[in-house]
Amino acid sequence: MTKLTSSIFAIYIVLGIYFLSVAIQTPFVNIALSEVKEQLIIADPYYPKWAQRQLIEKGDILLSVDRQPAADNPAVQKHLTVIEAKELSILKADGTIHTVPITHLDIPEQLFTLFIFPMLYFVLSICVTIYLWRKNKENFLTNLLILFLLTVSMAYISSIASSRANSMGHIVINFCIVLCLTILIHFLEHYFRYLHIKWPFIESRLLYIIPLLVLCHDIVNFINPTIHILTPITILALFCLLVICIICILLASYLQTRSPKIRIIAISLIIPFMPFLLLFAVPEILGRQAILSSEFSALFLLLIPFSFIFIQVNERLFDIEYQLSRLRYYSALAFAIALVLTIGIAILLNEYDSIAKITGVFILLFIGIIAGFYAKEQLDFKHRKIIFSSNGDYVHNLYAAVNSIGNARNQQELEARFTQEIANKLGTTTFTIETVTDDLPLSRGEMVIEYKVIQIVLHDTAEEKIVLTISNTIQKKELLWLELLSLYFSMFVDNLKLIEDLVDEIHHMKVASNTQVPWLDTLLWNIIEKEKTILAQELHDTILQEQLHLARELDVIAGSQVIKKERVLEIREQLLDSSQDLRDYCENLSPPLLDTFGLQVALKKLIQKVKIRANFLLDAQIDRVDFQDVTLHLVVYRLVQELLNNALKHSEAMEVTLHLTAIDRGFALQYSDDGIGCNIDEMIASTTSMGINGIRERVRSFSGDMNITSIPDEGMQIYIQIQEKSEDKHD
Q: Membrane-spanning residues where (predicted)?
């Protein structure tokens, strides 16, 4: 998370807690008044059912608010409305004075919509923000998504204070309701560039002028209330205009590219805004009564944090179709459960006519149940070893079995390990694995169950078939486990046969010609010549050119009548520098410190040299790492060397960070810079980017993982992880 994003996150938490504290202090009543003969008459209670229960009627005279004269209440003076109160005194038509104490539980509608829902949204936004940041740290697109989520959430939370005529809440909601859509357009611009989609629209950064003007206007209006240019209707109009712009951008781009990623963006981010736009904002702008109140239409904004689970910026989105199918499945289950529970609650509370309240309860239950499904899914996976016995965790056992049989060196050992896995997992010895030449009416992987006898063809060729026969009843999950393991067994047999055939062919060719295998010699020769060419090019472009230049300088001095001592000393220094460069090349080819003093000392020496040559600030943190495979020490050294050389030659960075950390049976290497960056696809396809491609090939040769993130003009981040091969990976 960048410093700016971290600061905004801290401000978000502080303001959110402040607005929630404002909401919980005093119940929201919102009773409209009219003034008749200097008396304050109750005209329109916002919560008519509550008013009816409290015997508050239209035409009653309001005497006091919180034991203070009603005329002295600031909200009454400014808006002719009682916005919040803990106690009201009312003069009834029969001359009696009626005192109404008010608590939050007396008006559950305002408690839910103006405190509980915003508080849940506040906490949920924090959780999703932390989740996004942990998933993809230091990524510009992720930071934009985080900022968008925080501004949407802040607009929602500040509305509960703005509805209470809180000046800070009024300023924040006007600013954030415009800013969130501006950030969304900014995100779309950079995301389209990431997808190599042309952005033919306005430069998004220019749009930030709009929320800044709104903020300046509200601050000036706070200082001098007579200046009131932007009305709430104007802010709603700006909001509608920006939403329409976003819809047009997404529709035009989707029709042009038919990209499923654009479609998921539209579904995830636009739909939550539509109820607020169509059911509240548009009717208000047109001067009509809103179809759904602002607090209920804003409940759909609760869908936005869940949308962020689908929008992952880590070189690609999630597997969209899989995620959408899972969401549809959970939504169908949640809809049915939420509908039944909502009907039950409505019957118990006798709330048939309050459509808004029932709708709010249904939405809350629907979203909560979906969130519960996702949470249960994560918890089940995390505690799978507790929920399932070791014998019942079929996925884990399949993974362990595949790793075990995959390490077999020949077919005999493969069959032995396969036999052992079946005996351990199924707990039976009543099975046989035999090679038959009979014409069985079964194909590879096919299973037949007859009279409690199971037959599976593990492998077949034109001459023979390997058949597994089990004379025992096993469960359905065990059958699935067995079928999958059999498929893996068949693939391993194919691979072993290919390797054996290749080795036999090489041996036969060698014996027949009594020489090395020609194609293997050619491959090795090409690799050696390629490395020689790279080294020759490096020496030619650097040291050799420097030597030729100095030779010409010496020719000039030899031909002159007067030899200047200072110039000779200067050439001497240049020769020493050239010799030092040559020594560095020798050390790079075979670092002497690595074998003598170990990896840590060699890396520290390398980093010191880079710091002397570099034009950037290098922050390097090197942890002690040890491996059983000594070649990994050289691998780590070469990777660090290549990364720093790439930073020196190409990055044009001001700051570079490099962290080497030890992990279980391996290491993790994190590199980042703030340089010119690049287009990942073009870099990989380029023949000139030998450094990065060399790193990729080196990591791949050791079965490691490498992740590169880069955007032009916004730096590069590289994450590398390599682990030693172990016989006990599944443990």
A: 7-28, 111-133, 140-161, 167-185, 206-223, 229-252, 264-286, 298-317, 329-349, 355-375
Residues near 633 by Cβ (< 8 Å), separated by ≥ 6?
594, 598, 599, 627
The 3-state secondary structure of 396-429, one letter per residue: HHHHHHHHHHHCCCCHHHHHHHHHHHHHHHHCCC
Number of H helices, E strands in the chain: 28, 16
Instruction: State residue 685's pLDDT score.
Output: 62
Q: Residue 212's pLDDT band (boundaries 50, 70, 90)?
A: very high
Q: Say which DSSP state 131 is in.
A: H
For residues 173 and 180, give the distance between their C-alpha atoms in angstroms, rounded to a whole number: 10
CA distance 82 to 35: 13
pTM value > 0.70: no
CB-based contacts of 319, cutoff 8 Å, min separation 6 = none
> Left, alpha or beta for 38 (phi > 0: left; psi -120 to 50: alpha)?
left
| Beta carbons of 625 and 669 less than 8 angstroms apart | no
User: pLDDT tens-digit profile of 394-440?
Assistant: 666 777 778 778 777 777 888 888 888 888 777 777 788 888 777 66
DSSP secondary structure of 81-96: EEEE-SEEEEE-TTS-
Q: Does residue 507 carry a pLDDT above 50? A: yes
Tell me the H-state helices in 88-166. Answer: 108-111, 117-135, 140-162
What is the share, in percent, of the chain residues with pLDDT greater than 70? 85
Find tokens 């208000």 and name the residue.
284
pLDDT at 512 over 80: no
Distance CA 185, CA 188 (A): 5
CA distances 620 to 517, 599, 657, 665, Å, are 46, 14, 6, 22
Alpha-carbon Rg for the chain, nearest whole angstrom, is 36
Residue 389 makes CB contacts below 8 A (sequence gap 6+) with none
According to DSSP, residue 164 is labeled: T
Question: Average pLDDT of the chain?
Answer: 80
pLDDT at 101: 93
Q: What is the C-alpha separation between 251 and 179, in angstroms, rounded?
A: 22
Which tokens is 224 given? 């001098």
pLDDT in tens, 654-688: 899 999 998 888 889 999 998 888 877 777 666 44
Cα angle value 432/433/438 (rounded, 5°):
110
